Description:
By secondary structure, chain A is α+β, with helices and mostly antiparallel strands. Chain A has 3 domains: 2-286, Bira Bifunctional Protein, Domain 2 (BirA Bifunctional Protein, domain 2, 2-Layer Sandwich); 303-414, Anticodon-binding domain (Rossmann fold); 419-489, Translation Initiation Factor IF3 (2-Layer Sandwich). Helix content of chain A is 35%, strand content 28%. Chain A has 14 helices and 27 strands. In chain A, a hairpin with a 5-residue loop joins β20 and β21 (384-388). The radius of gyration of chain A is 26 Å and the shape is globular. The mean pLDDT of chain A is 96. Chains A and B meet through β2, α2, β3, β4 and α3 of A and β2, α2, β3, β4 and α3 of B. β5 of chain A pairs antiparallel with β5 of chain B, so a sheet runs across the interface.
Amino acid sequence: MSKEITSREKDYSQWYNDLVIKGGLADYSAVRGCMVIKPYGYALWENMRDVLDKMFKDTGHVNAYFPLFVPKSLFEAEEKNAEGFAKECAVVTHYRLKTDPDNKGKLIVDPEAKLEEELVVRPTSEAIIWNTYKGWIQSYRDLPLLINQWANVVRWEMRTRLFLRTAEFLWQEGHTAHATKAEAVEEAEKMLHVYADFAENYMALPVIKGVKTPNERFAGAEDTYCIEALMQDGKALQAGTSHFLGQNFAKAFDVKFSDKTNKQDYVWATSWGVSTRLIGGLVMAHSDDDGLILPPKIAPLQVVIVPIFKGDEQKGVLDNTIHPLVTSLKALGIRVKYDDSDNARPGWKFAQYEMQGVPVRLAIGMRDLENGVVEIARRDTKEKQTIALNGIEWYIKTLLDEIQLHLYNKAKAFQQANITPANSWDEFVQLLDTKAGFISAHWDGTPETEEKIKELTKATIRCIPLNNPLESGHCILSVQPSSQRVLFARAY
Amino acid sequence: MSKEITSREKDYSQWYNDLVIKGGLADYSAVRGCMVIKPYGYALWENMRDVLDKMFKDTGHVNAYFPLFVPKSLFEAEEKNAEGFAKECAVVTHYRLKTDPDNKGKLIVDPEAKLEEELVVRPTSEAIIWNTYKGWIQSYRDLPLLINQWANVVRWEMRTRLFLRTAEFLWQEGHTAHATKAEAVEEAEKMLHVYADFAENYMALPVIKGVKTPNERFAGAEDTYCIEALMQDGKALQAGTSHFLGQNFAKAFDVKFSDKTNKQDYVWATSWGVSTRLIGGLVMAHSDDDGLILPPKIAPLQVVIVPIFKGDEQKGVLDNTIHPLVTSLKALGIRVKYDDSDNARPGWKFAQYEMQGVPVRLAIGMRDLENGVVEIARRDTKEKQTIALNGIEWYIKTLLDEIQLHLYNKAKAFQQANITPANSWDEFVQLLDTKAGFISAHWDGTPETEEKIKELTKATIRCIPLNNPLESGHCILSVQPSSQRVLFARAY
């Protein structure tokens, strides 16, 4: 099984695709740039979604649902946002098909069913939501409005990659409205911390929290906060963003409120989102050449039990032990599968579950049973141990926590080892080609220099870390004075 | 508050809209035929979705996600299905907007970004899913494939109504593949029973299970099973459908499997779905002229506690009792809100929560506290009682069950009282105009007669009930012989 996976060394990009496809997470579809999220991948997304959803609710947010379509006139209302997304919009122009008179059994777009106004398939929902908020907000009593939406969005990207960049993707988008600037900024920062908490404590994915440069901001934002993760190939991945939108959308959609003194002002806004792209980051952060490695907290399956037997009689004996074990593992909230199917050999099953990144595998044969033991294998370290069956439930529970922590620590050590200072242009360029990772370097603060560096090296400023220490220096490219280092990287 | 709701007697249709809008379930949007599902309505949908999702998983199904778009060539592959939906398809023809050269700040569709092949926004996903299944199914070992999808779909309906008929709606669609016809039929029937179970035991909505006539079948199905509910105005509402699709989609997409003897055959299929339309049915089945009445099992809020006090000191005293009560209600799994906001009087709050259909309301003032009692009001019967605070948690838990049962029994009695036999055309027509409800009548079994009855009366055959007793008679319209009665009604 595992031999079908291209190694990272040979072709990192193909390794990634192999993991996604052969690990059962997703599949290509007949629609350009769109993917099918397969049941195993969707179960992973459900686990991620459920954790995030609880975090959003615990911080006072509620869910709602807004239309898929944005009429063009609303879409263009906030000019920067519209400009930022115009080039990748799927546009609905007609509302009916009809039989092709020249070609029986085929359909054509009915030219008589042309929409008066074209509808944009939402690439993001600020426009439709702020147009709605206009009707919901009159007074300070209506604020804050703390709403999240789980939805599909479409961005017509030219080059797509499974999970990382697809024309359609699933995400959540929070859209909040506030009476003061300070409150909106606080909200944007709070949600950044929620994302970081989720990435680190559930995905075992260490991230750097920071602020984007104006060049890299979300179209229509005053400030874009982000969490940036590091992949095994040394490229960065933007894992989530939280935007302080100022009053831009409130002004574009004329959303005002009256405060306690009856004074009118525009409402302050934030938006924040993470998407199925996170799954791409998860795959690339932890996995190895034998397949996926998934953190226990969000793995669809945490434990698989493979019986080793010949014939129904042995199977029956094993069942007598394994069925109660499954029950007691489930009672501890552990997601466990007893794979007693007889259509594959144990070795094949082992490889299959390795490929799928199931954190813990148990194998039990007749001799194990006689000795009251079981073989337990960790997916992350590939370590195998023989452990007493008695009390194994708690051993497994602890082991899952240990694996979760180990994955995080390993990724954290990798991240720390791959934040490298560069103090000259030569050093910068050399680092990018030899070590990659985050490069911490001085930048003169101008969009021109940033753009130039990107042109020359494909490296972008990933972020200015939060609480970045001030340090005088000189821009690696322009040699102009600089007051702080920023983090550069090539990125997904 | 409640005086703002139009009464059912005055204008049933306006009453419904008032409940949906003023009850906070949904709002109109800027997109023709599309609605915004507001947080309260979405919380209701989440509760419904979670119960259904568990039911699907308990019956062996897994979730996945397929693309929003269906290339036209795939869409038209299953001809009947394509024909059935062609007239209501939103079609994406372009993938880019550009700045309008004649109108600064405005955007136009970029004519150079025309898609080679148009994309249909899914009205249902059989085509895209069966095109995918082709790659997933080779052998009997790959079967059955039991997949469900939670998604948005778009059907460009000309006349729309909040929840009941919207251009975009949320739904789930199960798509299963089987090795035998018998197994597929069994699946279609099983899911019908799941839907009926959900409607009756969670929505408190009694339904009739039946089969559609060929005229009313889903486009592309061999058989459509349905559950039909009755609204208070005597109109029927199709609340869910489950289709046995035969081998139609397998043939259209060439999906074959080899059985144990290596013989090739086309795969057998089912699909089944329920949507946010259910919320419309829920509203119309139980509510009254004062607002929504929601069944406790799926109500976003089950209990609201309104304190009656003057000043902070009294408030503090009440808090000391109410906070622990809230904690212990939550510990029992009860969704409770303590509305201690000071921006509205108790009477206003009472009306507000009545409007929103919160099943149980507690009101506690200082004197109640002194007497160790609380006033408890049921939304469904409007009964109020004074109950000892001590042990109130269990009283409430029991009361919620009682309300759930009462709503079902009331709706069931209404349904039973409104299934009326008609034995002649005159009787049939008179019943439709005076009593409505389901009319049980003989029909000659021809699509022509069915169509004629629909033309003359707007009544359709809602279903042929499962296990319908055979009975000789004569068709109410054609007077031809008939072997069984079927259920007619005017419907949403």
